[in-house]
Please model this.
Amino acid sequence: MTGRSWRHFSVFWPFVVAGLIGPPSAVAAPTSAVNGSDVAPAEHSFASTGAGADANDILTDDGWVCLDGDDLAVEDEPLGELPDRDVATSPRYLAVFKDKPVHDAVLEMFCKAAQLGGHLFGDNIADTCTITERDVRAIEADAETLGIDYLQTLYGRTNTSKVHRLIYHLADELRARGNLWEGDTSLNETLHGACKRMYKRTNKRGPGVSLQMMRCEQTQVQVLKEIEEDDEVYKPGPRAAAAAVSVSTHTADLSFSGRGKRVTVGDLLATPELQSMAERLTSDGIRWVTVSKTARIVARFEWGAAGRVQYVRATPSFMGKAWYSFVKYESHAGEVQWGRARLVVRSLERQARSCIVVQRLRRVNADSGCVLTAYGCVRLAWDFESVGADVPALEIVESTRILRLEDVQVDWSDLSHRHGLRAMPSTVARTPIERRAARYFTNPFYPWTSRELVPTL
Model:
C-alpha cells in the first residue's frame, strides 16, 4: 500500500472497523490456533458458526504444510498473527487500555492512525505552512503511542522498518526537512514505466553514449522553448489578471451558476420527502420554483483556514448516481446544525433566491465509552417534526448560512448490531421505523484543508 492510498484509506477505516468488530456473542465461540497457540475468536456476533466454518476451511486449504528444515514455512513468519485470546488480561494491555474491551482497543488504534496521518499532512489547521517544535513533539508522541502502546500491545513485537522509522525517526525527519514531501514517491513511481520505455528506446539508437546525451540535451532545449512560447501566447492581460486576484471570500459574492429547471409545486407534492415544503409554498401562493443540481458556497472553516469554494449538490442523478450533500450550517439563532441537502432552489417564481432545502439532523447521545466520540465524532440522527412523521423535517436554508460541507458516515456498529454484519444502507428497507433508528457520525478525519503534497516553486 502506497502513502497516497493509505491516506485515503485511513480517513474512513475507523468507521468500517467499528462495524466489523464488536462484543462476542453470548455463545462461547471455539478457539482457533495460529502457530500452535490459541488466539482470540475472530468472529462477529452475527457471523455464522458450525459446519459452514469447516466447509470454508476445506475450500480455502492450499495444501501448504510445515516441513522440517523449511526456513520459509508459514508458521515461522512472525507477522500477521492475531491477538492472543488472553491479551485483554495481560499486564501490558491493562496498563495501556485498562478495562477497555479488545474491540474498542483495536478501534482506538485505527483512530490514532487516522489522527496521526492528519497531523502529518496538516489536515484542518489554520496555518499549513508552519510546523513548530511543539507540533513535532505532539506528532512524535502520537507515533510512539500508535507504534509501541497500541500496535505492539495488541499484536506483539512488530519488527518492520516502517514501524521503526515511524517510532524513532519521524521527529528527526520533520526537524531536518520540515515536511514529508520528499517521502511521497507516488508520482515518481507512476513515471517509472515511462522512464524505462524511454531508456530502452535510447539505448537502441546512435553509435554511443555521447550521441545519446547530445540528443537528450537537444530535446530538453526544444521542450523548454515550447513551454516558454506557450507562456507568451496564453499570458493573461491586465483585466484577466485583476479578475484572478479578486477571489470571492463570501458566499454572497458568488453569482448563481448552473442551468436552472422550472418545477411546479404540484410535482414537489408528489415527492414524500419534499411534501411538507411544497405545502408551505402552496400556502404562500407560490406555484412554481426554479431548481438546480448544484449550489456554490464559500466554506467557512472553524479552524481558521482561508475559505474556498465548495459545491453543494442535490440531485437524484449526477453522472448516473444520486448525490445529496451533507452540510453544516447556522440556524436563525446562531446554533450549529447538520443536515442533508435535498433541493437547490434558484428562484420562487420570479423572485431570485439562493437557498437549499435541507433534511435536518439532530445530535444524539453516544454510547458510554464510545471511542469515535472521544476522537471528535458527533453522533447524529434524523430530526422529525412530530412523533407520527414518516420523513425527516425540512428547513429552507439560505446559502449564506451554510458553513461548509460535512462528511457524514453511517454508524456501522449500530447498523450491524441491528441488521447483521453484511447489512448495507442500500439493502436495508427505508421505512419510518428504520429512519428513526438510523444513526450517523461526522468524520473529523476528513481533510477539508491540507498541506500541498507537491508545492509549487
Summary: The CA atoms of residues 16 and 412 lie 6 Å apart.
